[in-house]
Amino acid sequence: MKGKKVITLLLLIVLIAGTVFVAINGVGEKETGGANNVKLGLDLAGGVSITYTTVKDNPSDKELKDTVFKLRKRIDSLGYTEGEVYREGSDRINVDIPNAKDAEKVLEELGKPGKLEFVGPDNVVILTGEDVKDATAQIVDGEADPYIIALELNESGKDKFAEATKKFLGQIIAIVYNGESIMTPRVSKVIPDGNASITNMGNMERAENMAANIRIGALPLELEELRSNVVGAKLGSEAVDTSVKAGIIGLVIILLFMLFFYRMPGLAADIALVFYAGLTVVLLSVFKITLTLPGIAGIILSIGMAVDANIIIFSRIKEELALEKTLRSSLKAGFKKATSAILDGNITTLIAAIVLYLKGTGPIKGFAQTLALGIIVSMFTALVITRVILWAFAGLGIKNKKLYGIAQKTRTINVVSRRKLWFGISLVIIVIGLISMPIHNASKGTMLNYDIEFSGGSTTLVNIGKTMTKSEIDSELTPIVVEATKDSSPQFQAVSNKTQVIIKTKKLGNVERSNLKDKLIETYGITAEDIESTSISATISDDMRRNALMSILIATICILLYVTLRFKDYRFGVSAVVALVHDVLIVLAVYSLFRIPINNSFIAAMLTIVGYSINDTIVLFDRVRENQKYMKRGDFKGVVDTSISQTISRSINTSLTTFIMIAVLYVIGVESIKEFALPLMVGIISGTYSSIFVASPLWYIFKRKEESKIQKAHQPQR
């Protein structure tokens, strides 16, 4: 038996060591599975920036919004999920494609923007691009020429196409792009449902190119390419390097913390966490998931949940050992009792991740991808890898209970009786934050410090005459731009392998624009022709904001339904959602009070806090549900206080380990990373606070009211 345990442990160590080796070095020439092969988004690694202009003069606001939204969907369908689409001025649309190095290749994949028409034999236009929903290249097995284009029409095009295919059966309906016929498919049958196949494409490359032209031609506005550049990273390599360094330092501190506090189980958790980190990197690389700042947020949250899962297990094992059970029975019971809390906490967060991925766009999808991946890996490492390691330790004869920890007698903490105090503290902080918003609006012009990504502004493309590094931009260019524009936080993108720099600032008036131009000409000896300025709309479009809010709303409803069904009590779900709203308002107050810029990082931070808040609350509610079986009738106060007392050390330790990870990121990170880390630290504290001092007392209030109604209903009528 002991020999089997030794072999199992050795095999597991080989597996973990191999996974970590692959994560660091990769496999083969392309370093598949390695950290160097992980795709980085535009904000971390740069990419391609394309600017289109509309052929139509003075397009309407609705036409531009519809085109931006559809173009956003197009680049998502091509796999560029971290791409950004936004308006510049009154007739331009900008597309930023992350991690791309070849502008021509991106333009070819995206398709040449233009006007699309389906023309009948009588030269009458049957359909336009507005009638097309999608077009994709596909392979059909069993055909001599298996390459086709699957064409899908929307409701407006379905009936028109059905009538046309009936009228022109056996004849050609030409597909005309920018006035030129690109395909002449023959109608072989009547198509009533708007789903058609264009056959005989010859090869996959031609099918994909033609499908791309149809898709891009289906945009509401005809577009022309104005310029395309390969640009440098928004955050720069320094931000990536410091983030990686912070992650390593934070992970090492967590490993030491777990080893010191939990001893042998802590060692098992450390081995599992190292495996978790390596496996996550390998999967990011293999599945080609693009990593951006929101994606990093998803990983940070999943690391916290991985640690949390282990802490829940170890706390349960310590409780079982305190009942003087054997080590084997304690391990078995500990894992069994911890599983429901781990599953419930992770599933609720996974629900949110799935909804965010399905409904979200761009950065939201990136966050959802890494979060979902991290949740699945963390559950596997906690419930399988940690279990195997602990059983192996026990099988090898390491059975001293003191090495596994024995829970001390729990002293009941009176939380519910002081609920008015806890609610009052939360209310004061939230009210201060809400009051600060109109004050800032009166004094600074905006309630919150909206970054250019949210509020729009001005972009200036300047040919400096030399390539500039990040440090040169910080030391030379930043002071010039700040002085000329009075914008304290301008953004820069260096165009790779060129002497151009893109400067993004708040919306500039004629005076600021002129000042900036004069300063640049004076400093770098360039001419006015080397400088081009335009207004820019918000990167985070109204559609993206609506999608983000709708995603969070749907996710919240799904979580509420899951918790209600799983716990068989809707009050758990309602209390958890109130705690979630509480945490969002607290963090929003911090954004207001400290004037932290509202940008893509804001969305990432808020999503992280939502996930953390839900998980922390569900774990505590799982203990409340369990303790209800043993409580005296109507003693809801006692069951809540007891549950909090039993789980408070777990809540503190989990929060502390996650807080450490973010705090290190804040201490050594660049300014843009600090702006992201500070709200997260506040959110972690708030999430822990709300689970204990808001959600639990709320559940008590709801249950007490229900009990009062039941008692009144059963009282005899006089």
Structure description:
With 718 residues, this protein is an alpha+beta fold. The chain folds into four domains: 2-24 and 234-403, Multidrug efflux transporter AcrB transmembrane fold (Up-down Bundle); 47-231, 2-Layer Sandwich (Alpha-Beta Plaits), CATH 3.30.70; 416-433 and 543-714, Up-down Bundle (Multidrug efflux transporter AcrB transmembrane fold); 457-536, 2-Layer Sandwich (Alpha-Beta Plaits), CATH 3.30.70. It has helices at residues 2-25, 42-45, 61-77, 103-110, 155-167, 204-217, 236-286, 293-322, 327-359, 363-395, 419-444, 452-455, 470-485, 510-524, 542-567, 570-593, 600-627, 636-668, 671-714, and strands at residues 47-54, 84-88, 92-98, 116-119, 125-128, 132-139, 147-153, 174-177, 180-183, 195-198, 223-231, 457-463, 491-494, 500-505, 531-536. The strands form four sheets. A four-stranded antiparallel sheet has the order 2-3-1-11. Strands 5-4-8-9 form a four-stranded antiparallel sheet. Helix 1 packs across helix 7 and helix 9 runs antiparallel to helix 10 (363-395). The protein is globular, with a radius of gyration of 29 Å.
